[in-house]
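User: Earlier you gave me the apo prediction for this protein. Now I'd like the version with pyridoxal-5'-phosphate bound, so I can compare the two side by side. Same sequence as before, with the ligand SMILES added.
Assistant: Got it. Here's the input I'm using:
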Amino acid sequence: MSQLSADRPAPALIFETGAPGRATHYVERSRPHGEFLPPELLRSELPLPDNSELDVVRHFTQLSHRTFGIDLGFYPLGSCTMKYNPRVNDAMANLPGFRDLHPYTPDDIAQGSLAVMYELERSLSSIFGMAAFSLNPSAGAHAELAALLVAKKYFKDRGESKRTKVIVPDTAHGPNPASAAMCGFKVISLPSDARGRVSVEEIEKVLGDDTAVCMMTNPNTLGLFEDHIAEIAAAVHRVGGLMYYDGANANAIMGNVRPGDMGFDLMHLNTHKTFTIPHGGGGAGHGPLGVAAHLVEYLPSPVVRAIPDGKSDLRRAPSDGMRFELDFDRPKSIGPMRSFWSNFAHAVRALSYLYANGAEGLKSVSQLAVLNANYLRVGVSEFLATPYPEICRHEFVASAQELKKATGVRALDIAKALLDRGFMAPTVYFPLIVPECLMMEPTETESKETLDLFIEALREIVETAKRDPQSVMAAPVNTVVGRIDETRAARQPDLRWRQSG
Ligand SMILES: *Cc1c(COP(=O)(O)O)cnc(C)c1O
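And here is the structure of the complex with pyridoxal-5'-phosphate:
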């Protein structure tokens, strides 16, 4: 059962529970309240509460139980790769030499940190078949924008500014067309065929000398492998366009196929999805941008440059025998997308994950992710339509269209009912081409037992919908908050605490 419970009273705000003189100073009792803060931050007009340490700990612990995360339960949010985040990665990022790195640290005394960036960059390039990566962008969408800026600059340098169109399949993730539009390109949406894929005939209809970039992901967001990818890439290259790979969800391909070998010129990764960095709730992300050889000089600045130190030719790791420096002198670069080292702690976490797995380990990560997705797909297909009944990759889509016609219960209601049963909901209503879509991605870190429990919960919801649709439409009733007005919550968020009375 869920950790979330409607009958648990809301924890009082610490502003409301405080009382003068209650603060405890275990460190040094003689110090008056607030003396641990630099004096210039103290403003006497602020009504800061005086709370005991115990009350503060309880307050934040209770708050932490009123939300849901991967550490609490199964989180099959399609296209988000919500896998276990190994704690060893955090331990590595917390090593003082990494954690306390100052943005202005001179290269000479930051060699270890530069080596981390270099090794991560080299490893990603080899795993994904690209010439080089930039670790600078700090999210998937941020890297997409960087990639399109690279493409724009590349075409400008070649005197091909007439290339104004970006082709995006109708299965694409929302940020793809948004990034293209932000970059000033015209977006051409490409319909998928009956097999849920881009066909060579369809793409040839829109290709021309105004084609700049074709943005795709493979497997696509239906979880299906684009089996004509080599012909598609060849057709785009024939007219002089570039192929862009949205690698936010690289969980099905690591160690099996490489975007570089499929013909892609640019790609991004979400290390905060595939490489186990905690995400969700808008936390800091990390979106390395990879490019083929002809685009390397356009990558964001700085990049880590390795210079053989002439001292050692013992190469156990790519960084052995090397001296590193941050290279800012790159005249063709699109410039920095982020200041200083970007989200360096995430580079440490990603490298820690790569080292823990090794090449063979990453391959089995992908194989298990695909196995889990197919196990779930077959289980779910017993009671919900799965519109593309074939082997999927890391995720798959189901549709509640028939159930809605018969009972009025929609994908959204199923999602809410799952919350009542202690599971995070799948992604709903995406991709847009599947009506009443539920998109599920179990990842490799879930056990068979967990997948079975989830399948049974879903089956029970569908059966309840047929018997008593109203009860499913009323869900969730066991969570801290019931149905909320999600549109208003996003458009007019009310985030301020106001003193009562
Ligand atoms: C998550 C995702 C993105 C966007 O990544 P952010 O880090 O959230 O900006 C882009 N494309 C796909 C396919 C994704 O799943």
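For your comparison, keep in mind: Residues 79, 139-141, 173, 175, 217, 246, 248-249, 270, 285, 287 surround pyridoxal-5'-phosphate (CB under 6 Å).
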